[in-house]
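Subject: Sigma-70 family RNA polymerase sigma factor structure
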Amino acid sequence: MEIKEAISKAKQNNQVAFNFLLDTFWNDVYAFQLKRTENENDAEDITIQTFSKAFDKIDTYDDNYKFKTWLITISKNIHIDLVRKQKKIIQNTSKDNNEHYFEIIDDSPTPEDKIITEQNLAKLLRDIKKLKPHYQKVINLRYFQELSYKEISEELNEPINNVKVKLLRAKKLLAAIITKT
């Protein structure tokens, strides 16, 4: 599939076209953000938000410009907005004298993991555990708890498009893990 064809199909809500565009440009946008943020998690979050926003606003894309340039511009603007928000939060919290708490993520296996005896499901769960926690959560909510995109969006307090992009990325990473083993 050519990029122009994919964009045209994406404007008609073709999921295969969205997948193609995501696969084609993910590394470019991620690398751009990794250079800016110097943090893998932030770069990944911003990249997810970039594709979410791009897919949501794909009708506004002007094909006089390169699609990659359009994505990078969206990505840059998201990063700028996040930096502004962080500065605002830092200013607000510096005025407060409240104690700060940090949540520690527990990586230990859950009781459900211990109960599962079926080989294929146990292997799949082990492969899912290799994903980053936010990808594990979205896979769990969608395929194990069988929530709709809307319900996942409410659970994670994120826009539906972010959920779709995260799920798409999680499935791609999980497929790569499964094919390696």
